[in-house]
Amino acid sequence: MFAKDRDLVVLEPGLHRDIAWMGQRLLSGIGSLVGTALSINSGSFVDAGIESGHVVLFDDVVLEVVSVESDLQATVSLMRADTSSNAIPGIDASNQKVEVYGYGPQIGIVHRQVLGMIGINVDDENGLSEDAVTNPGALVRLEALGALHLIYSGAGASGRNGQKFDQRARMYRERFASERERVIAMIDLNGDGIAESTRRPNAFVLDRA
Fold this sequence. Notes:
The chain is built from five helices and eight strands. By secondary structure, it is of the alpha+beta class. The protein folds into two domains: 79 residues, Elongation Factor Tu (Ef-tu), domain 3 (Beta Barrel); 95 residues, no CATH class. Helix 1 packs across helix 4, helix 3 packs across helix 4 and helix 4 runs antiparallel to helix 5. The relative contact order is 0.16. The C terminus is likely disordered.
């Protein structure tokens, strides 16, 4: 997938605090933070599938996972504008609630849709794979906006303050449509690592029979 949970939070900072119940709870426990080192008393980051790009709620403070060092320790950061930047330490604290929610299913649905929009059918064993996209970073925002639309649409349908969530769902649908008009995917057609084609996800791609 092009987008990760942290990319959703960059666009919607209140996501994990407001509607975490729309995600999958991957981890819940007690932990301590010293600088950028987050340790938990029980459970396992590894077994829970936590990795770079996931988001942690530490005493209701949103932190992004930079890396997982072991079952009980991960390197985290306050939200960064760029994942290549150094990790930003949070406020040291001990014995605080640690929760990790994931939105992989929603991102996965949009991921398949985005690939289909640029002519990549992941079910076609003889066709192009997503590795053919040489500029995946250009599609992160598009995928994140689509996932946020799905998440808020689901939250609105659940009946919990549904009108408010429906409004946000419509906003993200509009932003997704606008992003489709802007973004360009670079496609490597022959596997040499060089893009021979450019495709916009605002038009269907017809392959030769």
